[in-house]
């Protein structure tokens, strides 16, 4: 956290952030902040009604947000090429996860029937970010227009955000080996195939959820030993992203990249492999 912290106030967080960005001389995307909760209490520590929000803000290290800013730039270019006008912002940037917010009067066209267009955008973003930001996870939140069609409900089967703008993640135990390394798929697509069927995605999400629940119950990190390609690894990351109490990271094991799920104790990944 930067030592150069400032306090700003606004009618909402966005206004306070804009004021902070101006004072710090950086884009709003590069401002980190926390709410100033003292603003909502009197001298006796009692909660009081207020009409504004105060934040404590500081300029972040640009490298900490590189993935989010790259995804934002990609979405902005795509929307422009589609012939739409939109305001694209980033939020909830933490631990290589970010939400890309798209506000447009053409929101319904960006979402598409049954979320089909949004699905396609997420898939394309996934491929575009893969080379440089494979371990990042992205949500795309589309809103605007009269109906504010902002959620891809089908994605919420595992969860909407978790389609992670880059191509959603999700997995389960049916397709491929289970978390103990046993092969229960009996064939199917090769591990180097970057695509997978909807059934495989649902299966992989279930696997990730089941392993995460075991980690929470036992308090010990577990590695999904099933060989996963980059798309599958992203799916697992996304399936766990919104679960309380657990996190994921990527580790090298037997010469391959594997997903580790561990208890979120607020101190980052555990030291053991």
In short:
With 273 residues, the protein is α+β, with helices and mostly antiparallel strands. The protein is built from 7 helices and 9 strands, in the order βαββαββααβααβαββ. Helix 6 crosses helix 7.
Q: Could you please describe the fold and organization of this structure?
A:
This protein has 273 residues and is of the alpha+beta class. The chain folds into three domains: 6-60, no CATH class; 64-167, K homology (KH) domain (GMP Synthetase, Chain A, domain 3), CATH 3.30.300.20; 169-273, Ribosomal Protein S8, Chain: A, domain 1. It is built from seven helices and nine strands, in the order βαββαββααβααβαββ. The strands form three sheets. Strands 1-3-2 form a three-stranded antiparallel beta sheet, with helices on one face. The radius of gyration is 20 Å and the shape is globular.
